[in-house]
User: Fold AAA+ ATPase domain-containing protein from Phytohabitans suffuscus.
Amino acid sequence: MLPADHHDGPWDAVFVPPGTKERLLGTALLVLRHGRALGTLSGPPHGLIVLSGPPGTGKTTLCQGLAQAAATAVARRGATTFVEIDPHAFPSEMLGESQRAVRRLFAETLPELAARRPHTVVLVDEVEALAVRRSTASFQTNPVDVHRATDAVLAGLDTLRAECPHLVLLATTNFPAAVDEAVLSRADLVLALELPGPDVLARIVRSSLAELATLWPALRPLAADTALHGKLAARCAGFDGRRARKAILAAVAQRPDLAEDPSRLSDVDLYAAVSA
Assistant:
């Protein structure tokens, strides 16, 4: 149930280009607040938001944060149910099993969960595992079941639109070309997250050092050195956000004396870690 104190953090932890979070939150709130009224339009929203991009760009974390941010925004109208689905848990060994499992998910499980509270947000990571692009499905991977499972997803999205107008479905994918075209066409927003540029990397470096400085106050000068952040970001060119954060942590772990006492971390140590 959201909003919840233990779910704070992800929304602020991911750094994205200006306007990205506003578009995500606006798209989600439109459905959560006005989904039933919008259902009267000739082209109503499906409540589907798809985030694509390379691993480490913060897609899942951003979705988790969006769920909390949206739930907070509509909290006066009631709580929000947040559901995370692992698509790899669906059976596929037997012909037709994936199709039946997907149909149950969309026609029974999600509507039952959505009936509990005024708003519902569902997260499906790696949605390509559920909605394989049928035009490129290999005949060596049980294509009949693949097609049927994707058909079930499409029918399920339409069912949720009709039966659960205040439900938002967040989907992530590392491979947008592997997601069925008909699923993407139902999305209200398809947002591609790219590898962070220099400005975003500098913010990630600053944030990572600031977090370390809360544990070891002697590191506050490093956390406040914007020139240092820019230089480190330049050396992190091509890193995803996760790798950039881990590089800062790796700086503390590169020598036993630093691991024993992280307050001894220096700019030299940081340069060495991001250049390794």
Q: What stands out?
A: The first helix runs from residue 10 to 13. Residues 5-192 form a domain with the Rossmann fold fold (CATH 3.40.50.300). The two ends are 43 Å apart (CA to CA).
